[in-house]
Structure formats: C-alpha cells, structure tokens
Amino acid sequence: MPKVLVSDKLSPTAVQIFKDRGVEVDYMPDIGKDKDRLLEIIGDYDGLAIRSATKVTAKLIAAATNLKVVGRAGIGVDNVDIPAASRRGIIVMNTPFGNSITTAEHAISLMLAVARQIPEANASTQAGKWEKNRFMGVEITGKTLGVVGCGNIGSIVATRGVGLKMHVIAFDPFLSEKRAVELGIEKVDLDELLARSDFITLHTPLTDKTRNIINAQSIAKMKDGVRIINCARGGLIVEADLVTALKSGKVAGAGIDVFEAEPATENALFGLDNVVCTPHLGAATSEAQENVALQVAEQMSDYLVKGAVTNAINMPSITAEEAPRLKPFIKLAEVLGTFVGQVTEDPIKEVEILFDGQTASMNTSALVSAALAGLIRPQVADVNMVSAPIMAKERGVILSEIRRDKSGVFDGYIKLTVKTPTKTRTIAGTCFSDGKPRFIQIKGINLEAEVGEHMLYTTNQDSPGIIGLLGSVLGKGEVNIANFQLGRNRAGGDAIALLYLDAQIPDAVLAELRANPKIDSAKPLHFDINGG
Ligand SMILES: NC(=O)c1ccc[n+]([C@@H]2O[C@H](COP(=O)([O-])OP(=O)(O)OC[C@H]3O[C@@H](n4cnc5c(N)ncnc54)[C@H](O)[C@@H]3O)[C@@H](O)[C@H]2O)c1
Ligand SMILES: O=C(O)[C@H](O)COP(=O)(O)O
Q1: Quick one: which atom of ligand 2 is closest to the CA of 53?
Q2: What predicted TM-score, i.e. pTM, was given to this entire model?
Q3: pLDDT of res. 173
Q4: Confidence of residue 139 (pLDDT cuts 50, 70, 90)
Q5: DSSP states along 391-429
Q6: Of 2, 152, 223, 477, which one's alpha carbon is 20 to 30 angstroms from that of 306?
Q7: Can you list the domains of the chain with their CATH numbers?
Q8: Where is the signal peptide (predicted)?
Q9: Residue 204 to residues 241, 244, 253, 262, 486: CA-CA distances in angstroms?
Q10: Rounded to an integer, what distance in angstroms lies between the CA atom of residue 122 and that of residue 129?
C-alpha cells in the first residue's frame, strides 16, 4: 500500500480521502518546519502532501528515496525544487483553482482596508481615542486598478474591481486582447500600468522574471500616492525600496500578505501606519482549505493507486479514464525507446516520434515522455517519464512529433527515428488486443515480433544457413529460442534477425556469433516486460 506523509496543516478531509482510496497516511502538520526530522523520515514515503511551510529542497529530495509524488495543497510551488524533483522522476502537482477566489477576495479586502485605513482606525477606536479627523480615506470608485499577472487569481480580482466600479488595466504577457475584452478590462504594458494605476495588485508567480518586479525603479514610474497590494509572493517586491517609498509618501499605502522571508516575525514594513499586513492568509478560508485538501488527496491517491496524473507541473496529465487505455501504449513507446537506447552507443542528436492512426489521438505528450525514458534508460537506470524530457533537453536532443491518420494495416502504430552523428535508426511497434507490444518494423524491414525479457538482435547477411547458424550456436550454449523473426529489405540485401530467448545470452555464445563472418552485428537486448 502506498504511504503518504502530510507535513503541513491540511483539512482532515485529506486524511480521510487518502484512507478511503487505499493510501496509508501519516498526518504530521508541524514536521514541515522541522527540517532535520523530515530528512530522517522522508525515505519511508511514496508521497508528500504540503502547503507553503515545507521546503522541498534538493537535499530533502536526495533523501526521499521512495518518493514518487509531491502534492501542493494550494497554488505556489516556489517552495519545491522542481528541477531536482524532475531529475529524480518525482511528480510535483498542485491544486491550481482551489483557493483562487479566496485569495482574490483577500486582495480586494486588503485594497479596501488600505484605502480606508481600517486596521489603524480599529486599533485607535478600540483604544478609546475617537480620532475622527485622523483617518481620511480615498474612494475606489472610478480609480484605476492595475493588475500585474492576470491568470486565475488576477482575473478574478479584475472582475471584482470592475464590479466595484474601478477602471481595471492589466499587464500579463499571456493575456490576449479577446480575454481582456471578455473581462471588461484594458490590456496594457507594464510601464503604462505603473504610470496610470491608483492601486496596483500583484498576481504573478515568483519566477526569475518576476522576482523584484516592484523595486525603486518601477516605483519611480508610479503615480504619487499609489497604493500597492501583494497577495502573491514576497519576493516580487524589494521590501527595502517599498519602505523608503512609503516613508516618503510616494506610495500612500500597502497591503501585504506575503513576505520575502516567512514566517515574517520581524520586517521593516512593520510599524508603518500606512501598511496593512496579514500572515500569508490569502488562502485561509474554510472553503479554500476544504477545496485544496480534497483535491490534493484525490490527485495524489489517483496517481499512486491508478497512475492518473492531474495538475502536474513537470509531467503531462493522464486522466483516470484514459490511464488504462494508454498504459499498453506507454509500455510500447518505452520498449521502442529501450530498443534504440540499447543499440545506440553514439550521443543522440535528434528524436522523431511518429504517431499513426489511433495513437495520433492519444495523449501523445505522455507517450513521448515514455519513449524518451526508454531511450535514456540503458544509460541512466533511474530515469522515468518525469525526468526523461528534462534529461533529453539537457543533452541537447532535438525532439519532434508527427501525428497522422491511419496509413497501413494496423489500427495505429508508433515509429521512433533516432539520429546520432553517424547513423539514423528507426523502429516501429504496435499493441494488439492482448495489450502486449509488438515490434513491426526495424530499419524499414517489416516483421512481427513479440517483446521478451531477453532478446538477441542481429544484422546479418541475407544468405542461406543463417537460421541454422543462430540455432546451432545458441543451442550449443543451451539458450532456448522462444520466438524467431527474420526480415530483409530485398533478396541479398540488408537482413535482420530478432530472437526472443528464454534466458540471457552467455558472453561466450555472443562472442562466437560475433566472430562469424555472416553476422555483421549481434546485440543482446533486455526489456522490462512486467514493470510499469
Ligand atoms: N497569498 C496566498 O495565500 C496565495 C494564494 C494563492 C496563490 N498565491 C500566489 O498567487 C500566484 C498567482 O496565482 P494564480 O492562480 O493566479 O496563477 P496563474 O498561473 O493562474 O496566473 C499567473 C499569471 O501571471 C502571469 N505572469 C507570469 N509572468 C509574468 C510577468 N513577468 N509579468 C506579468 N504577468 C506574468 C502568467 O501569464 C499568468 O497568467 C501564485 O503563483 C501564488 O504564488 C498566493
Ligand atoms: O500558493 C498558495 O496556494 C498560497 O500561497 C497558499 O499558501 P498556504 O497553503 O501556505 O496558505
């Protein structure tokens, strides 16, 4: 039974769902903050369910020898070292919609709180001061709201802003004009947004491009008296520059939910009377926490139990419905890759994958990942569908994918073409109704071969006696042949043989075959026919 650790505070719903779906679960909501203890125990788990407190570092990943999936009950995954996870073949998934409304509402709440200085006025009133003249606010009606990052949360904030009679402008490189019109907002570039906005609200992820997007230079481009809201990530703002601007009055107020360093128990923004701070409460409603807990537990269980992949950051999705139909073709793609990976010694430069017939309408991203995993595995044993695309990219492999309608006798097949500096190799295969992969073409030569754990592949002369030669040498070496396939491109031309053996071929037998002038090459092959 797969085993999951929940290392941050999650609704009990998550624990129940894991149990109901056949996953053992340990709920330790504080262990995420105890790095050393987490390092000690992480090796026991197949899954890790987190929020933002647990830092999934390269060190933790190295210690997580059984880990297959990290599930983020929430949106931001900047606390997970995704390249390190991908390299180890660990899927990282999040719940991209579960807390969006809640977070958007928090941004709007902070904007209104800053506009009317509600927290300060509350503190003063409850202290018995009745400072009616001290708290002069601003209306938001008719004001310009600049939304930086108009994805799920940003677009909800934008429409709420429109509902509050604000003029909403947005900067997001991926926002289309059409979508902007649908939202009733104006798409602008960043400088225009900075220059025109009375309120600026941030809703981008924290990436190398967005880090420090609000700094002294960008603040200088803003209107005097602008108010800034940040419910996304602390690293988007250079806090020292914001403090300077708040003190000078250039920025009239700020609503800050997220900080450069969290938990933020000390911060230069604290104590300024035009700042409203909350302790990363963007997602903190009972509704949002139920949503993300339920989603993350369902997604992680589906992956660990059924192989379905939903909302993964580093792997194509595979729905629970398509997983059973896709499974044999994933195996096929992997086997084709493994075949070429075993016969290729040179560095791979280009990989082309052709999807013919029914395979063209399948989840080809997953099939490509499987083919790459098979191709790389003979060199790097622990590669899988998550790590293979990243490894291929790191090795500079040029990848292309072709899909086409049914072109021959098979309902569909996959053909892999792999180029090295010296050779181009092709292999094609299909799955029959028994769900087992078959090789149907090697080097353009048609055949129909079952895939076995131990195989022998030879390129040889097309001359009499080859069958006898292979049979007698293997027989002498006590290697039983389960299946024997021959093929050639033309009489007397290129010929191949593919043998399915009952046992691994001994070195001496291989050497004898290789020494025979009729055999150009002989390669033992191994396939993991039961795994995956
Ligand atoms: N305070 C909280 O508790 C809380 C809760 C949920 C999410 N968040 C944060 O909010 C962020 C946004 O969440 P989301 O669900 O809207 O994500 P999303 O992916 O739907 O939207 C992010 C948008 O930012 C845009 N973007 C990326 N780089 C940009 C750039 N350089 N300039 C402008 N726009 C850029 C993207 O195109 C995308 O449309 C998350 O990454 C997370 O860090 C915080
Ligand atoms: O990215 C998110 O989903 C939010 O930052 C929420 O973080 P939390 O789960 O730690 O509250």
Answers
A1: 10
A2: 0.82
A3: 84
A4: very high
A5: HHHHTT-EEEEEEE---SSSSEEEEEEEE-SS-EEEEEE
A6: 152
A7: 3-97+287-306 (3.40.50.720), 138-277 (3.40.50.720), 316-451 (3.30.1330.90), 452-524 (3.30.70.260)
A8: none
A9: 19, 23, 20, 18, 58
A10: 10
322-343 vs 364-376: helix crossing angle, rounded to 10 = 30
* Confidence band of 513 (pLDDT split at 50, 70, 90): very high
Q: What's the whole-number average pLDDT of the chain?
A: 94
Reported as a pLDDT band with limits 50, 70 and 90, residue 531 is low
Ligand 1 mutation pick, 153, 174, 187, max ligand atoms within 8 A of CB = 153
* Catalytic, out of 106, 160, 203, 233: 233
> Ligand 1 pocket, 100 CB below 6 A?
yes
- Per-residue tokens: 254: 């700020």
Q: Name the residue among 205, 175, 196 with its Cα closest to residue 74.
A: 205
Q: What pLDDT was estimated at residue 532? A: 52
User: For residue 220, how many other CB atoms are within 10 A of its CB?
Assistant: 11
* R_g of the chain, CA atoms, integer Å: 30
Averaged over 404-433, what is the pLDDT?
A: 94
Could you read off the pLDDT of 356-412 as tens digits, one per residue?
999 999 999 999 999 999 999 888 877 889 889 988 998 899 999 999 998 888 999
197 lines ligand 2 (CB under 6 A): no
Q: What are phi and psi of 298, to 5 degrees?
A: -65, -45
Which residue lies with its CA nearest to atom 27 of ligand 1? Answer: 204
Task: Give per-residue pLDDT as tens, 112-129.
Answer: 999 999 999 999 999 999
Does ligand 1 have an atom closer than 6 angstroms to the CB of 174? Answer: yes
Mean local confidence (pLDDT), 90-95: 95
DSSP, collapsed to helix, strand or coil, labels residue 333 as: helix
Catalytic residue among 24, 120, 260, 262: 262
What tokens does 29 get? 């909501």
Report which protein residue has its CA nearest ligand 1's atom 7: 75
Give 282's DSSP letter: T
What's the average model confidence in pLDDT over 525-532? 78
Confirm whether 526 is a catalytic residue.
no
